[in-house]
Amino acid sequence: MTADSRRGLAIWVVACALGAGLTLFAAGRDWAKVTMGGVAGGPASTVPVSGGTLVPVLTPLALAAAASAVAVLATRGLWRRVVGAVLALCGVGAAVAAATGVSAASGPAAAEAAARQSALALSGQAAAQAVWPWPAVALAGGVVLALTGLVACVRGGRWAAMSARYDRPGSRREAAASGDRAMWDALDEGVDPTADPVKHDKEK
């Protein structure tokens, strides 16, 4: 693998880690704050709602994307492109889920999630307010993951697999062992292994 390919692979790995990290971190932050009316005239309560609660599919998609990124490094050829496509789809799904959460953070879905989370009855006075910038951060992370998947599909064939570093020493050892066997076989036949093979064939 050339220096440019190694540099490109390193940038790709960093981008994958950044995209998955942003999405997972943002999913754990508060995306909405819901103010719910108190029971029997009691004081109102404010319930925070995280992105993972508001959009439950977001965290699994980010984890699947991270696993796909590792699988890209472990595969090669057609399988690498297939896994890259899976990574891109996970990124698109995460971006769509985050975009859905942006609108849901200030709507009835946030109020319903807050009611489930706090085990309080949803009243007519519930009001949801979106909390920024975490929905946008998750959306950006999903876009980055989708782009890394596309890059893996297009340029992944130029990258070496993780097993490549272990394959080469073995191949060299096998070649050396084969050369040693050939030398001993030549000595057993009374042939000088250091002699010119063309000259030896003419003498025969």
Automatic annotation (TrEMBL):
Q: Does the keyword Membrane apply?
A: yes
Transmembrane region(s): 9-27, 54-74, 86-111, 131-154
Could you tell me which residues belong to the region Disordered? Answer: 184-204
Query: Has the keyword Transmembrane helix been applied to this entry?
Result: yes
Keywords of this entry? Membrane, Transmembrane, Transmembrane helix
Q: Which InterPro entries match?
A: Trp_biosyn_TM_oprn/chp
Q: Name one Pfam family in it.
A: Trp_oprn_chp
Q: What is this protein called?
A: MFS transporter
